[in-house]
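Our collaborator T.R. sent over the components below with a one-line note: 'Predict the complex.' Nothing else. No constraints on interfaces, no templates requested, no preferences about which chain binds where. So this is a plain run: every listed entity goes in together, and whatever single assembly comes back becomes the starting point for the next discussion.
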Amino acid sequence: MMRSRLVALIPHAVLILAVLLFAFPIWIAIAGSTQDSAAIARGDISLIPDPAGLGVYRDVLVNGSAGAGPVWRALLVSAGMALVIALGKIALSLPSAYAVTFFRFPFRMTAFWLIFLTLMLPVEVRLIPTFQVMSSLDLINSFTGLTIPLVASATATLLFRQTFLTLPDELVEAARMDGAGPLRFLKDIIIPISGANIAALFVILFVYGWNQYLWPLLVATDPKLDTVVIGIVKMIGVDTATEWNKVMATAVLALLPPVAVVLLMQRWFVKGLTEGDK
Amino acid sequence: MAGLRLEGLRKSFGANEILKGVDLALADGEMLVIVGASGCGKSTLLRLVAGLESPTAGRILIDDQDVTGRDPSARDIAMVFQNYALYPHMSVFDNMAYGLKIRGLPKSEIRAKVDAASSLLGLDALLDRKPRQLSGGQRQRVAMGRAIVRDPKLFLFDEPLSNLDAKLRVQMRGEIRRLQRRLRVTSLYVTHDQVEAMTLGDRLLVMHQGVPVQLATPTEVFERPADTYVAGFIGSPAMNLLPGILGRNGTVVAVEGTEIPLGNRRFARPDGHPVTLGIRPEHVALDPAGTSWPVEVVELLGSEMLVHAGRADGASLTLRLPNGAALSDTVRVSFPAGQLHLFDRATGLRLEAVA
Ligand SMILES: Nc1ncnc2c1ncn2[C@@H]1O[C@H](COP(=O)(O)OP(=O)(O)OP(=O)(O)O)[C@@H](O)[C@H]1O
Ligand SMILES: [Mg+2]
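Returned assembly:
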């Protein structure tokens, strides 16, 4: 009796410990954001948030801080970038996976392997040539230049292809006999069936886009195109004393949209997973 | 509704010739059951007719119109698949309505057709469910419904009942038969099941390695199999086939030196011609004066039993006897002349008596 309770308790203890480990820094950021910058710099952070300091959120959102523009704009840029990347990747990879899986055309496997190959060449690896291309297209310091190079995606194409391959041939054939052409089949069957996958992928890609750092740093020097991640770094990098409470407030704000997306989409793809027929 | 004609239909996958020339004509409203060993090309034949594969040679005519090059959707054919292939994310209603929607029928008409089909199949209460909320038999019915609502010229069934349990299979078999009779849609039905083969169709086609070997009514196929392959394939347990020699001016067959009279039939082959003698297990008669066979295995099947007997030289014989028949270590049997089938041993083809 005692023994089995102990056995049940240990995993719980481990889990609670892990949660604390993850949550603690976030709590520090929340608590720290409401406190005095100088005190934080001295290392004297209270773990209790000070309600009087909540005004800092309004302040960073509207005015920003030394070295960085208002956070609302940075949040908008980040959200725009993450959305374009996530949606763009899905919009691109869904049809390409569809083509590679369901159609026979010359060099089909070549196309597939080329896509596969790009998996080994993420943006970070082809940074210089990509920059060169963007520069000659005159897309430096533009939203297009910020997002488009991050849109091409092998991962999503592969993922979709794998799910498509699990669909029975008869499903495709039944639809053909019902008179569904390729586009109809994509719209009526493939996309609804892949709903859960699309939702899951959207979450992953949104967070991926949101957290981009290196490429935005390189391609967009115009402060108007600063993402929130870049903004945080800029806040820290100034000569004057860093306003730590503002940095932490910005960090907390930067955390919210991805969390919101995860929570929102989670309902969706859990629903998709449980309603799926596989 | 329409007839179907296949002319010299061939199909190769690479160097593999799967169908080696199929000629076939189905009358309007006829149901043809196709049987054959696994891999003999039954599914391939259906897929050619459906337009899911294109033939290497030959023509497919529906209603005397050549549809060989047409897209599946332009052939007006409905197919029921072994794994049902329902659209998993659509309700039962939408599954049935999908083909009609694509054809651009008005909503009210779609509703009426789906309602008619679902009440015919007893699906009324299930229209809002998703396929995964249905039992196997219900899914099978939805697949049928999807075929029926389209009001096609031709039904194709590829082993539609093989995923169901025995009881449900019996029930669905009856339903399919009734439906087909009632709707009078020309149908091709592929199966592995002996009972389906015997009961479902107007005619039965036995295929062997891509060639049709016999096309006739089920009774005809059962009573007068065209060759040893059909003889061994149709009927369960399979017909006993024993090597023999024709003798006495074509009126007896000598098996292992024992002469078996063929009744008042005479076969126009020279004496000494090698033949295969066929007799179904239910026709072998216990006879105290007959030849003796050592019993190897006895299987009790409830109301009857199967006795497998074998001789040292490898010849084997199966008997089907009423349960409770007295048995010892050996059975003595005779072969009633009227129940014997004779095949040419070299070609395997059935031999017919001349008088
Ligand atoms: N797309 C294909 N490419 C190559 N070979 C194929 C293809 N489709 C079928 N075959 C081959 O054709 C032969 C006949 O296949 P088919 O599916 O018609 O058999 P079947 O009679 O339906 O068998 P079963 O009773 O097992 O369903 C098999 O040897 C199979 O391997
Ligand atoms: Mg098959």
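Summary for T.R.: Chain A has one domain: 56-275.
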